[in-house]
Amino acid sequence: MSLSSQRSRTDAARSCESVEARQIRLESDRERHADSRASETYTQREARLCLQRSRASFSRSIEDDEERETRLRRDRSQHALSRSLETDEQREERRAAARQRYHELLGDASTHLSQERDRIQEIRGTWSDEQRAAQVEQDRLRRNVNQLSTSDEESTVYDIEEQPWLNKEGSGFMYNVAINYAAYGNIGALEEVCAHCQARKWKGEPNGMCCASGKVDNRWIVPYSPVLSRTFQTHIANPVTLWEKYRHRLSEDFLRALRRANEDEVEVTDGRVLNTCLSSLQDVVISIGGNPLER
C-alpha cells in the first residue's frame, strides 16, 4: 500500500511539473547517478545490479495485470518523451552506449562459451570407454530426433513414440528412431505362386525375385538335404528316448509363447507345451519324410 501511494504522489507531482523543470530534474538525476557510478568499484556495481534485479523481480511478481499494463504504458510514454526531447548529440551518445553494451555482451558470451568448451573437454577426458560410447549413442539419437521429417504426411503433430510409418520408400537408408517399425512387421502370408517355378511369394513382391521370370533353373533345389530326408523316411531307432532327452529344449519357444499369452508361470512339464511341440514336430516330420511320428 505504501509503494502504491508513493507512486501516486510521485505521478501527481511529475504531472504538474513543466518541461523545463522536468529537464532540470532529469539532468540532475543523470549527473548524480554518473558521479555515484563512476566512484563505485566492480564489486559494488555487481551488488547494485543484483539488488536492482531482485527488487524489480519481486515488484513485478506481486503486481496484477492492470498494474503491469499501467507500468508498461508509463514506460513507453517516458521513453517516447525522453527520445523526442533529446538532441542529436544525446541520441548518438545513447546509441554508442547501446552498441558498446552489445559488444560487451558478445564478448562475455564468447568468453562463456570458451569456458564451457574447456569445461566439457575436461569432463569428457575423465570418461571411460563405456561412458563415451553411451554419450555418442545419445547424441546420435538426439540428432535423429531433431532431423525428423516434417512433411505433410509425416508431421510432428504425432508424439515421438507414436509417429507412423507412412513413407516407406527408401526407409532402409533413413532410419527414424521415432517410428516403431516392429508394429509394421506383419507383411502377410505367402499367398502368391510364381508361374514359372511355383515358388510361394508375398503379395506385392516384384516378379522375377525367385527365378528371374523362368531364366534360372531351380529344379536342382531340394526342400531338405538327402541325408535328413533319408533319416526321417526310415525308422528312428528309439524316438521315445530321443524325445525324453531333448523335449525341454525343443519346446522352449512354445513354453515362452504360452507364458506370454497367459501372463503366468507355466511349468516346463505342462502338457499343453509338450503336446503343441509334438504336434509341430509331426508336421515337420511328415513334410520331410512322409511318415508321422508314431511310425
TrEMBL record:
Which parts of the sequence are annotated with region: Disordered?
A: 1-44, 59-98
UniProt biased composition (Basic and acidic residues)? 8-44, 68-78, 85-98
On the tree of life, the source organism's domain of life is Eukaryota
Q: By what name is this protein known?
A: Uncharacterized protein
The species is: Spodoptera exigua (Beet armyworm)
